[in-house]
Amino acid sequence: MTRIVVVGNGMAGSRLAGELRARDPDARITVFGAEPWQPYNRVLLSNVLAGSSGPGQVRLLDAHWYGEQGVHAHLGAEVTQIDRGTQAVITRDGRREPYDVLVLATGSEAIVPPVAGVERALPFRTLGDCQKIVAAADGARRAAVVGGGLLGIEAARGLAGRGLPVTLLHLAGHLMERQLDAEAGLMLGETLRGLGVEIRTGVNVTAITGEGVLASGLSVEADLVVLACGVRPLTSLAAEAGLEVRRGVVVDDELRTDDPAIFAIGECAEHDGTVYGLVAPAWEQAAVAADVITGGKARYRGSRLVTRLKARSVELAAMGETQLGEEQAEVVRFSHRARGTYRKLVIRDGRLVGAILLGESDAVGTLTQLYDRGAQVPGDPAGLLFPGRPAGAVADSPVRMPDAAKVCHCNNVTKGQIRACWEAGARDLAAVSAATRATTGCGTCREAVEGIVGWLCEQEGVNA
């Protein structure tokens, strides 16, 4: 019986445990999680901040899953050492667990900037962080969020949803500068202002005081300061064991480290020079690692990233090389600032290599499919911005959407898989979600899945 030990019980580690059990009913699987609770969906923590979801509503597994699957789970048990000589891991309390195969899924940690008074601020990364922020928000008058990337915007949106006036402070000249161009970042800021979030970009935080935040000569009043300054891979366990570590734990196409008995997946892993910080690549890696560990021949070739943000009055999708200009590629752009709508396509060699969609848009599914498949764009690419016009490519309508079209990017679920699931008897969203895992990641595909299920029911005269 193969002894598999997984260090990390977050979105990557817990998914791996499920993928392993699905492939090998006899393997001995042991999971160590440093956090004291069941794995949860980190993507949905802003809903907990906003009060629209409770901690129990973002859990990925129920409390009985481990026992039912025969997985040995140790929660609140931090692994502090890997003994590669005897092939065992050692926890902080001295427990020693032998392994035949070890998988590191340690994730990442919040970056805390070295500024005066930073101990007065609360990082936003884990469920525990989230609970501390919620408790502090109950007695706060004003909040400040440091960091204008995806996580900072989620935090600001969540706190504004609780009725708190929020100031968002960002070092770069516009929000989400890694994913958005300047115009899209500016318009996103205007949308957030409409939700009660004051935006200050191009400012450098120099101190956090009892009264608020000092930044580039400004004084921002706040009795709650939240840090969302990015994350760094947790690699110390691997480095201390002598494994190759650069920015992350270096892995090959099988997700193996330079020790053939040790794998790494998720935010702590570095594949082909890239560390991915989104859930979809982590889940793709979990599936590949599970295949390899159980004797398969799968290979990981990297992931095509689609960043999604969908909340009340904020809808955003960004993918690929969004920063390219007309001198480097064909760029098709539509902007309507009064409505908070911005759409940009970046095309090179006849293929979509990047896109930004800000504001409500029915073009997201079409463009995501084109980008993911590397398919040729139609002769009139402007038509892709407004799918009501004939585009001659893939389509959002279930009638025209090909079975190969990917509907849920987090879980790699296609329309064809949803159809097959429906034909096997899953006749509503909950049943399809349970069978395929669609909608269980970022949740932005929910409407698309509901539309496909509704269409299938309508075709057969079935009440959904």
From TrEMBL:
Domain NADH-rubredoxin oxidoreductase C-terminal: 306-367
Family matches, as Pfam families: Fer2_BFD (PF04324), Pyr_redox_2 (PF07992), Rubredoxin_C (PF18267)
Keywords from the UniProt entry: FAD, Flavoprotein, Heme, Iron, Iron-sulfur, Metal-binding, Oxidoreductase
Cofactor(s), names only, from the UniProt record: siroheme; FAD; [4Fe-4S] cluster
Domain FAD/NAD(P)-binding: start-end pairs: 3-286
Coiled coil, from the record: none
UniProt-listed InterPro entries: BFD-like_2Fe2S-bd_dom (IPR007419), BFD-like_2Fe2S-bd_dom_sf (IPR041854), FAD/NAD-bd_sf (IPR036188), FAD/NAD-binding_dom (IPR023753), FAD/NAD-linked_Rdtase_dimer_sf (IPR016156), NasD-like (IPR052034), Rubredoxin_C (IPR041575)
Pathway: Nitrogen metabolism; nitrate reduction (assimilation)
Family: Belongs to the nitrite and sulfite reductase 4Fe-4S domain family.
Protein name per its UniProtKB record: FAD-dependent oxidoreductase
